[in-house]
Amino acid sequence: MRLIRFVLALIVLAVGVLWSLQGLGLVKGSFMTGQTQWLYIGLVTMLVGLVGLRWANRSRI
Predict the structure, then answer these.
(1) pTM over cut 0.85
(2) Cα 30–chain centre separation
(3) Which stretches are transmembrane (predicted)?
């Protein structure tokens, strides 16, 4: 179960990075390219992914 949470959090983080880069206009070929709203959506998504990674990696006592 821990591995599944880790992989899902990693996917969410990667999607957030992609959306942020598209919002900045660094990744081309999408309707999201160059639109700042996708930068902010991507940053929030990255934050959710980081929180998920922390949750997936916390130790159980």
Answers:
(1) yes
(2) 17
(3) 39-56
Q: In three state form, how does the secondary structure of the chain look?
A: CHHHHHHHHHHHHHHHHHHHHHHHCCCCCCCCCCCHHHHHHHHHHHHHHHHHHHHHHCCCC
Task: Answer whether 52's CB lies under 8 Å from 9's CB.
Answer: yes
Tokens, residue 47 = 């934050």
Instruction: Tokens for 15, please give them.
Output: 């999607």
Give the tens place of pLDDT for each residue, 35-50: 999 999 999 999 999 9
Distance separating alpha carbons of residues 56 and 47, to the nearest angstrom: 14
Amino acid at 49: G
